[in-house]
Amino acid sequence: MTNALVEEQRPPLWERYADQFPVRRNLIYLNHAPLAPLAGPAAEAMRNLADDCARFGSLHYDQWMNAYEGLRVAAARLINADRSEIALVKNTSEGIATVALGLDWKPGDRMVGFREEFPANFYPWKRLEAKGVTVTWLSVTDPLDQIEAACRGARLLAISFVPVSHRVSGTARDIGEICRRNNCIFLVDAIQGLGAFSDRYPVLSYRCSGRGWAQVAVGPGGLRHPLCSAGAARPDRAGGIRLDQTSPAMPITRPAT
Ligand SMILES: Cc1ncc(COP(=O)(O)O)c(C=O)c1O
Questions:
Q1: Would you tell me the crossing angle of helices 92-102 and 123-130 to the nearest 10 degrees?
Q2: Residue 186's beta-bridge partner residues?
Q3: Is residue 234 part of a domain?
Q4: Contacts of residue 14, Cβ cutoff 8 Å, sequence gap at least 6
Q5: Which of 117, 122, 162, 191 to mutate for ligand 1's pocket (most ligand atoms within 8 Å of CB)?
Q6: Tally of domains in the chain
Q7: Which protein residues are within 6 Å of ligand 1, measured from CB?
Q8: Residue 225 covered by a domain
Q9: CB within 10 Å: which end of the chain, N or C, has fewer?
Q10: In 10 A of CB 91, how many CB atoms?
Q11: Where are the strands (E) in 116-230, listed by range?
Q12: Phi, psi torsion values for 137, nearest 5 degrees
């Protein structure tokens, strides 16, 4: 039997996973894109971590690091990337700001932004504009040939999945193709679609999620950002864990006697 046939005979995906969503006992929930209810296992993992931290402080720090590693591998699988391309960030906004403020913008550089974007994907570009980068502001309803014209000579185009999916004249795939043709970095804020859509973008410089379908609640996000590894962009801030660190610093802890 072929894999496709086996898949066809199984119950639909939503039936297989329905039990894992406790929210269904209370509500018919139709707002998964902006703020999704958590799946039971995701909520359980968060509770366990909080409980561990409350009872043992940082004693199990190495296990937390393993969880980070598992998350990177799973995030890479979800978006067809390599784990080395995934950086974990605090949330979507931080991911976008990391790209915006971390690229080595030069005088005369230009990027393409969209007026209707979420604040997270609007203000970082406004800030760059104030620093001398030219921003060509478009509307998400502008036709594709206008987007193509704007991309000619531009360094980056930033758009989020939501306005893209509302477009009448094109999709993220079309815009990705335009960016590829024009050698323009294609930045997609995929928070409201990642996890629900398995679309593989032809050109994808960046994907990021936090809440929504990806089951990570408000806060953590993932950033696919090969530009960082290529040395073209440098993060504008640092956290507690170095990217090249393979084992965490040993926490100062001792069992109670
Ligand atoms: C499209 C989009 N981008 C960015 C954000 C901000 O997300 P975060 O809180 O992860 O920074 C949201 C929040 O709803 C959003 O819907």
A1: 20
A2: 157
A3: yes
A4: none
A5: 191
A6: 1
A7: 34, 91-93, 118, 120-121, 160, 162, 189, 191-192, 210, 218, 221
A8: yes
A9: C
A10: 19
A11: 134-138, 156-160, 185-189, 221-224
A12: -90, 125
CA distance 187 to 157: 6
CA of 34 to the centre of ligand 1 (A): 8
- 125: exposed, middle or buried (Cβ count in 10 Å: 0-12, 13-18, 19+): buried
pTM of the complete model beyond 0.85: no
Compute the distance from residue 206 Cα to the ligand 1 centre, in Å. 15
Find the domain containing 174 and state its range. Answer: 1-238
Tokens 């502008």 sit on residue: 142
Cα separations in angstroms, 118 against 56, 93, 207, 219: 39, 10, 15, 16
Kindly report the backbone phi and psi dihedral angles of residue 222, in degrees, each rounded to the nearest multiple of 5, phi listed first: -125, 145
The CATH number given to whatever domain includes residue 197 is 3.40.640.10
Assigned domain for 253 exists: no
Task: Report yes or no on 257 lying in a domain.
Answer: no
77 and 222 in contact (C-beta within 8 Å)? no
Q: Can you give the pLDDT of all 257 residues of the chain as single tens digits?
A: 677 777 778 888 888 989 999 999 999 988 777 778 888 998 998 899 999 999 999 999 999 889 889 988 988 887 777 888 788 887 788 888 888 988 899 989 999 999 988 888 999 999 999 999 999 999 988 999 999 999 999 999 998 876 666 665 667 778 888 998 999 988 888 877 776 665 554 334 344 433 455 554 444 555 655 444 444 455 565 555 554 444 444 444 455 66
